[in-house]
Design brief:
- With 114 residues, this protein is mainly β.
- 4% of the residues lie in helices and 51% in strands.
- The protein has one helix and eleven strands; from the N terminus they run E-E-E-H-E-E-E-E-E-E-E-E.
- The strands form two sheets. Strands 2, 4, 5, 6, 9, 10 and 11 form a seven-stranded mixed beta sheet that branches. A four-stranded antiparallel beta sheet has the order 1-3-8-7.
- Strand 9 and strand 10 form a beta hairpin.
- The longest helix has 4 residues.
Amino acid sequence: QVQLVESGGGSVQAGGSLSLSCAASKNIFSRYAMGWYRQAPGKQREFVATIAIGGETQYGDSVWGRFTISRDKTKNAVNLQMDSLKPEDTAVYYCVALTDINVWGQGTQVTVSA
């Protein structure tokens, strides 16, 4: 059974930083691209970033230049470093393993106050 365990998140003032981590089973981490999406209240789920097995990254326009996604092979985890946070970054952030069916984590709340 595929399982994604997210950690990190919380509350921060605008301009601050937070870091998210998503631990996956080794067979998933080593075989599939992984990423992060987010969903704010009343809005559709939004693409944040993905990272391929080889390390190639893609970012959503709204986070480009502020967020950094990375893979930690020692922990089978995908990290999301979020800098220069804005109130509009407030959302539940979901980790996803881009398998045939896409597997989602349970989500973690990020709140950015003005």
